[in-house]
Amino acid sequence: MNPRWNKVWRDLWANKSRTIVVVLAIAVGVMAFSSVFITRAVLLKDMNTQYTAINPSSVILRFRDGFEPDLVNWIETQKGVKAARATGGTLVRIFTPQGARNVELIALNDYDKILVNQVTPETGSWPPQRKELIFERRSALALPYQLGDDIEIETPKGRQKTLNFAGTVHDLRAIPANLFPQFTAYVSFDTIRYLDESDVLTSLEIQTDDTIKTKDKALALGNQLKKDLENRGFEHISVRAEDPNKHWSQDVTSAFVMILTIIGAFSLVLSLFLVFNTVSAIVVQQKKQIGIMKAIGAKRLQISILFLAMALSYGFLSLLVAIPVGALLGYGSLAMVTNFLNLEILDFHIPPMVLAMETGIALVVPVIAALIPIIQGTKITVREAISDYVVAKQQKSWLNSLLTELTMLSRPMAVSLRNTFRQKGRLILTLVTLTIAGTLFVSVIGVRSSMVVELNNILELNNYDMELYFDGTYDSQKVTTDTQKVEGVAEAYTPLNISGEWQKNSGSESDQKEFIPIQGYIPNSQFSLVTITRGRNLQRSDSNQIIISNKFLRDDPSIEVGKTLTFTINDKDYDFEIVGVYLLADTKMVLVNSNYLRKIVPDADQASSVQIKTTKHDSAFLISFAKTVEESMKRRGYDVAYSLTIDSIRSASAGQFDFLVGFLMMMAALVAVVGGLGLAGTMSLNVLERTREIGVMRSIGASNSSVFRLVIVESLSIGFISWLIAVPLSVPVGLGFCYALGTAFFEEVLPYVFSPVGMLIWLVLVIVIAVLASIAPAKKAVSLTVRDTLSYE
Q1: pLDDT band at 580 (very low <50, low <70, confident <90, very high)
Q2: Cβ(592)–Cβ(518) below 8 Å
Q3: CA–CA gap between residue 283 and residue 66 (Å, rounded)
Q4: DSSP secondary structure letter of residue 461
Q5: 653 with 455: CB under 8 angstroms?
Q6: Number of neighbours of residue 454 by Cβ within 10 angstroms
Q7: Model confidence over 684-736: pLDDT tens digits?
Q8: What single-letter DSSP state applies at residue 244?
Q9: Residue 512: pLDDT band by 50, 70, 90 thresholds?
């Protein structure tokens, strides 16, 4: 081997622990960064491929009174319509150890010809036969039943029936059971009749043709079809539209992956600090070698190339680790996301662009990080390089003076603390690494607390313990009175919920009517507590004033407090003044003073549900009480459809938050690993540079434990200082996360919550990291003999 390249090899091989630490740090940074890009590229591609393959509907028409099967043929002849699927069904309940759960039963008009919203059979039989249930696979996973089991269900009329669990399907359009506490299953219309429920078709799911490319155009088509159907004699039709080319979670997924990408980039940048520290230390350590090479004719460029080759070698070795491990990490991340969203991994691969990015980052960026120390180190003259005489500069600082004055510290402790601040440049870079890791960790813990607060703010709109739904409408006053007679009910309230048509005023072709839920609201009522983000809340004296959910503002920035919106209610137009905006995740809803709404709605004295506050609020009580109140109301002559506890909704929503926070924590952990490797590298370099100093200490009687303690205390000092800096920095970073995640998932900035628990957890972790990072350097320091240390060059 050429002598110059032999030198590079020896530099790498002579200190294997240092090489391993640097290579691992770069590898962790590269694989954290690349795994996010692998996840994003494959996920979005597979998501769109799967979604497109099922021929998704972008317009859904719901008929309160049902329709005949031949209406499908007419719909499919209309302009803009490609195909349609007609469905019916009902809502039943099953009883699990966690309490009663609702199951949406979907019955198709023609199982042999499913052109829209296609489902994929996975296990058991298909299509469903009489008395058979085919569960959507996410629902099946959440149920305590096995394929072939007979399941007792309860119909809306309160009848107990038995159906057989005959199979599972994958339905991309169904809301996954892990995202909402309701199950989905397919049945035949024979089964619907066996349950003594209505077997009419109630929903038309329409796939639009290539001329409909946006949600606004899909909504315009839906409204036109509704108008045409009303001219044909149909009544009580609702319209819902969706983007025909986009999976429902695509926007949220993209926003979340972008946040992960930023964290991954942090881990990459931090790994480069270690490269900078390492190359700087090696250049200083090899000062005499540089002088000797210059003395025998080596040019500065030639010497620089040697050190750059070493940095390039670090990058190459890290690439050997980063590519396979990054692929595994990307696959694991992808598997978690697809499982959460009920998707499949169709074609896992490392995109060429990601592979090129990995290679470029691993090989080029370490070289760039090494340039500054190489340029500074190789400009030394021959005389300066080979001279043993160095004029020591007395370093006087307030910190050294302070440590000298602290007489209560033992001499070894004082030495450790002074050593901590000896190489200030290296210390700063190491602190930056650990501080960023700690800042991210504490911030992520705080984000979860912020999400929980946000969830509670949203659920305060439904500030009760459970809601009981009826299969029909009943006199509101009678429902309230009868409900309050049930033992365990503290208060009862019958909400007023209607739907109004809102005319958009955007001035574009999307200027179409949209159906908006309108809810009666009693100001100062304890059943509905809203979080106002702009303007004011409703007052008892208000009439045509409204507060709107924040979703309005995200979809149309021109809407603001003080503007007037027009809604068509029972074929009559009403103008409402916006006086406030309240928090509600991803849903458009309007709140109107209940007294005023009851005046303009003819059947306002009829109730289809009742909200209940119970005397006890724990989960175990609510699970048993739900069945108690249902049976009690049935005995009083009510057709009870189902009940839903707020606790079950809160649990499902908290599970979603935990999934998001878990991903953030995983990325923060990778950054912490890089920080730990950086600290380990720093301690190794410090021990190497103080070899002679350790020898002198050993020669005057320092014990192994004293030398070991010196290294450990120095590492702990660095870790503790980083913690002190990270805690206050976590506040602005946490605010940034609250802004990014809030606008992505809630259309509003999350309320920031500082987490003392996160602060204490990171303190424990940074102590553990500091100890682990210093054990190997400390053992090396202890293993050095006096002879070896004093003869060290």
Answers
A1: very high
A2: yes
A3: 82
A4: G
A5: yes
A6: 25
A7: 777 766 676 777 777 777 777 877 877 888 888 888 888 999 999 989 988 88
A8: T
A9: low
pLDDT confidence band for 302 (50 / 70 / 90): confident
**CB proximity list for 4: less than 8 A, separation 6 or greater:** 302, 306
463: number of Cβ within 10 Å: 16
| Residue bearing the bigger pLDDT, 543 or 652 | 543
Contact of 162 with 153, CB cutoff 8 Å: yes
CA distances from 480 to 6, 493, 526, 599, 607 (A): 89, 6, 16, 19, 9
pTM of the model: 0.69
pLDDT(622) > 80: yes
Beta strand segments in 595-740, E: 606-614, 640-645
d(CA 781, CA 715): 14
C-alpha span between 80 and 76 (Å, rounded): 9
Q: What angle do CA 517, 523, 524 make, to 5 degrees?
A: 130
pLDDT band (50, 70, 90) for residue 105: very high
| Range with the largest mean pLDDT of 97-111, 112-126, 495-509 | 112-126
CA distances from 416 to 262, 687, 717 (A): 36, 12, 8
For residue 670, give the nearest of 232, 238, 28, 141 by alpha carbon.
Answer: 28
Q: How many CA atoms lie within 13 A of 152 on its CB side?
A: 6
pLDDT at residue 509, as a whole number: 42
In SS3 terms, 85-123 reads as EEEEEEEEEEEECCEEEEEEEEEECCCCCCCCCCCEEEE
Strand 606-614 and strand 545-549: the pairing is unpaired
Other C-beta atoms lying within 10 Å of the C-beta of residue 487 = 9
> Phi/psi at 148 (nearest 5 deg)?
100, -10
Token pair recorded at residue 783: 């293993």
Question: Helix or strand or coil: residue 391?
Answer: coil
Looking up tokens 């190491």, which residue turns up? Answer: 430
The string of pLDDT tens digits covering residues 651-695 is 666 666 667 777 777 777 777 777 777 777 777 777 766 676 777
Q: Write down the residue that tokens 């007792």 correspond to.
A: 152
Residue 730 class from Cβ within 10 Å (0-12 exposed, 13-18 middle, 19+ buried)?
Answer: buried
C-alpha pair distances (Å), 529 with each of 456, 458, 749:
10, 9, 19
Q: Per-residue pLDDT for 399 more than 80?
A: no
| Both structure tokens of 387 | 């001279």
- Which amino acid does the sequence have at 590? V
Q: Which residues share a beta bridge with 123? A: 168
The CA-based dihedral angle spanning residues 242, 246, 250, 252, taken in that order and rounded to the nearest 10 degrees: -30
Q: Is the per-residue pLDDT at 755 higher than 50?
A: yes
SS3 string, 471-535, reads EEEEEHHHHHHHHHCCCCEEEEECCCEEEEEEECCCCCCCCCEEEEEEEEECCCCCCCCCCEEEE
H helix or E strand, kind and range, residue 59: strand 59-67
Q: Cα dist. 16→9, 22, 286, 314, 691 in Å? A: 11, 10, 17, 12, 17
pLDDT grade, residue 392 (50/70/90)? very low
Count of Cβ atoms closer than 10 Å to residue 296 Cβ:
7
Write b or e for each residue in 162-182: b if 16 or more Cβ atoms lie within 10 A of its Cβ, otherwise e.
ebbbbbbbbbbbbbbbbbbbb
What amino acid is encoded at 38 in this protein?
I
Chain segment 233-271, per-residue pLDDT in tens: 888 888 888 888 788 777 667 767 777 777 777 777 777
